[in-house]
Amino acid sequence: MTTQIMTLMRRSIMNIPTMALLGSLVAGASLFAVGQADHDHAAPAKLVQAVREATQQFIDVNNAGPAGYGPAFGCVSGPDHGAMGIHYINGPLVVDGLIDEAHPEALIYEPAGNKLRLVGVEYIVDAATWLTAHNGAPPMVEGQAFQFVNAPNRYGIPAFFELHVWAWRDNPNGAFVDWNNKVSCEGQ
């Protein structure tokens, strides 16, 4: 029995350098992951800022019409919470098959009494057009992947890719999540 205990202790002592090396690798990997997480947070801030700069003129909803945007679908509420708001869509931008962060396909407004507040934008592109032109790769802007919305859908339009950017209203779930709990259609 004493021989077995001594053998077990020798093996444990011999494993200490291995465990130390393994521990340093795990710590290094954790630091790398934290560095990556920090890097990922910089990308959303860049896109949100770009959207703010591109849409500053649309804070006043009266500037949307002359730029080709018009309301569609009414105020879109979430299935169980949150909302998107009223989409002002620029039809020619939707059908051109291109994505330009300076020209979103839709501006999103929240009704507040007799006023509309710009809360975000939505980039939209027809799925078939995009996939044909880009060899099946889904769209991305500043590292943010678009969501695929298949047909049939609640809007009655063909399958499309979309990306919301909550540039003018914070979203507790993230700047690129479809539904925003801080947006409401109640103020109409």
Oligomer: single chain
Please tell me the overall pLDDT: 81
In what order do the strands lie side by side in the largest sheet?
1-2-3-4-8-7
Q: Strand-residue fraction?
A: 25-35%
How many helices?
A: 3
Portion in helices: 25-40%
Can you put this structure into words, describing what you see?
- Residues 1-43 have low confidence and may be disordered.
- It is built from three helices and eight strands.
- With 188 residues, the protein is α+β, with helices and mostly antiparallel strands.
- The chain has helices spanning 2-55, 91-95, 127-133, and strands spanning 70-77, 83-89, 106-112, 115-126, 140-141, 144-145, 147-149, 160-165.
- Strand 1 and strand 2 form a beta hairpin.
- The chain has a domain at 56-165.
- A six-stranded antiparallel β-sheet has the order 1-2-3-4-8-7. A two-stranded antiparallel ribbon has the order 5-6.
- It starts with a helix and ends in a 23-residue tail after the last strand.
- It is globular, with a radius of gyration of 25 Å.
- It is 35% helix and 25% strand.
